[in-house]
């Protein structure tokens, strides 16, 4: 049985994860500003230094603590998918990446998997020791498991922030071939033995069903309140915003 991932969360919605290695810790994603306090406390509790910050993508709710962590931990490596490098600067991150990632790269026990779509250079990570798949925002587990290309009125922001809905769905399908025992998404709790739920989510995303009127209306209100203005047709199969949008 696998142990739960070390999940650090803000507002119960925005996740970062700590991965222990023999020589220190790898942090997957860096949340919003303030996440550094949770990371530093957890590192002190574990008695291990932070060695790497490995981003699944460079949206604002995944990079907020990067500069604070780089200042706190000298020599810290910042890793991001190659095609997401321009987004770091657009999000106001001062620290340049120390390594650009591509599928098949290794970071300690993690294998990098290319999953473009939610952002141009989105990646996932598989911890081959325990089968935990850190999927970023290709999958969202709020309120239930879905592909980020599928709009949900209770938490539409990941869909609003999706750069390419069709590519996101294709990446989600590709992840069905990964022998995951745990799915740790960027938003929501981890899912044990997730493949059946992932498959249902992918089939739903591939079905082409348009969101209902209530979902469109409520999501539109949330979009206006958060400043994430949609540019796709409201009746479309997915709703997107600026490619540098959050979530």
Tags for this model:
alpha/beta, 8 helices, 247 residues, 6-stranded mixed beta sheet
How large, in whole angstroms, is the Cα Rg? 17 Å
Main β-sheet: number of strands, strand sense, barrel status? 6 strands, mixed
Instruction: Let me know the number of strands.
Output: 14
Question: Order of SSEs, N→C?
Answer: EEEHEHHEHEEEEEEEHHEEHH
Count of runs of 4 or more consecutive helical residues: 8
Q: Average pLDDT value?
A: 87
Give the CA-based shape: globular
Helix content: 25-40%
Strand order of the largest sheet: 1-2-3-4-5-6
How would the blueprint of this fold be written?
Blueprint (H helix, E strand, L loop, with lengths): L5 E5 L3 E8 L2 E5 L6 H12 L3 E5 L5 H4 L2 H7 L4 E5 L3 H6 L8 E3 L4 E2 L2 E5 L8 E5 L4 E5 L2 E3 L3 E3 L9 H4 L4 H10 L7 E4 L5 E2 L2 H12 L6 H14 L21
Parallel strand pairs: 3-4, 4-5, 5-6, 10-13
Antiparallel strand pairs: 1-2, 2-3, 7-8, 8-9, 9-10, 11-12, 13-14
């Amino acid at each position: 049985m696998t142990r739960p991932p070390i999940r650090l969360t803000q507002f119960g919605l925005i996740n970062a994860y700590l991965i222990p290695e023999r020589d220190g810790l790898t942090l997957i994603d860096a949340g919003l500003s303030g996440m550094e306090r949770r990371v530093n406390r957890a590192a002190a509790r574990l008695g291990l230094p932070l060695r790497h910050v490995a981003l699944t993508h460079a949206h604002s709710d995944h990079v907020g603590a990067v500069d604070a962590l780089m200042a706190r931990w000298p020599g810290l490596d910042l890793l991001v998918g190659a095609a997401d490098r321009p987004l770091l600067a657009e999000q106001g991150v001062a620290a340049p990446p120390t390594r650009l990632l591509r599928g098949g790269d290794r970071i300690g026990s993690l294998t990098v998997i290319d999953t473009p779509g939610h952002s141009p250079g989105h990646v996932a990570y598989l911890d081959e020791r325990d089968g935990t798949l850190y999927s970023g925002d290709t999958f969202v587990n709020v309120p239930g498991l879905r592909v980020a290309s599928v709009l949900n009125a209770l938490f539409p922001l990941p869909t609003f922030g999706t750069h390419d809905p069709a590519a996101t769905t294709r990446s989600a399908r590709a992840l069905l071939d990964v022998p995951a025992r745990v799915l740790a998404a960027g938003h929501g709790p981890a899912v044990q033995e997730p493949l059946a739920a992932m498959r249902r989510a992918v089939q739903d995303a591939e079905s082409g069903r348009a969101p209902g009127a209530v979902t469109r209306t409520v999501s539109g209100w949330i979009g206006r309140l958060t400043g994430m203005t949609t540019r796709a047709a409201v009746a479309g199969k997915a709703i997107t915003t600026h490619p540098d949008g959050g979530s």
